[in-house]
Write a structure and sequence with these properties.
146 residues; mainly beta; Deoxyuridine 5'-Triphosphate Nucleotidohydrolase, Chain A; five-stranded antiparallel beta sheet; four-stranded antiparallel beta sheet
């Protein structure tokens, strides 16, 4: 069963959609009055014209598109970006140009993907000690590279 999300689309572009039957993310498009030219290492908030009413207990994650990252060096910052269930503003995508050349984003370009996820809420329980594991405090490369 799929979750139903209310959406307003103030752009002339199609609603975010799955490109294939097995896709996890829905492509979302830029909604621009003029193209954006990004210099290397420049970042920008790209409007989409999309507004969501996400049900409680869910979030929508904004993730990069792999082809855009590989071919143009454009990716999303704050990845995955979280759209909370109580946010009602326009969905914006923070893009950064990690390539060595200027990159252009045009109106209607597919710039990111949206993934719908359930959210578990947690509570904290203060304790005097934690259970032991084989790993314990080992981290940041403690298992080596081979």
């Amino acid at each position: 069963m799929s979750v139903q999300i209310d959406i307003i689309n103030k752009s002339p572009h199609p609603l975010p959609a799955y490109a294939t039957a097995g896709a996890s993310g829905m492509d979302i498009r830029a909604h621009l009055s003029e193209e954006i030219s990004l210099a290397p290492m420049q970042r920008v908030l790209v409007p989409t014209g999309i507004f969501l009413s996400i049900p409680a207990g869910y979030e929508v994650q904004v993730r990069p598109r792999s082809g855009l990252a590989l071919k143009q060096g454009l990716t999303c910052l704050n990845t995955p970006g979280t759209i909370d269930a109580d946010y009602r503003g326009e969905v914006g995508v923070i893009l950064i140009n990690l390539s060595e050349e200027r990159q252009v984003v045009r109106d209607g370009d597919r710039i990111a993907q949206l993934v719908v996820q359930r959210v578990e809420r947690a509570g904290w329980r203060s304790v005097e000690g934690l259970s032991e594991t084989e790993r314990n405090a080992g981290g940041f490369g403690h298992t080596g590279i081979k």
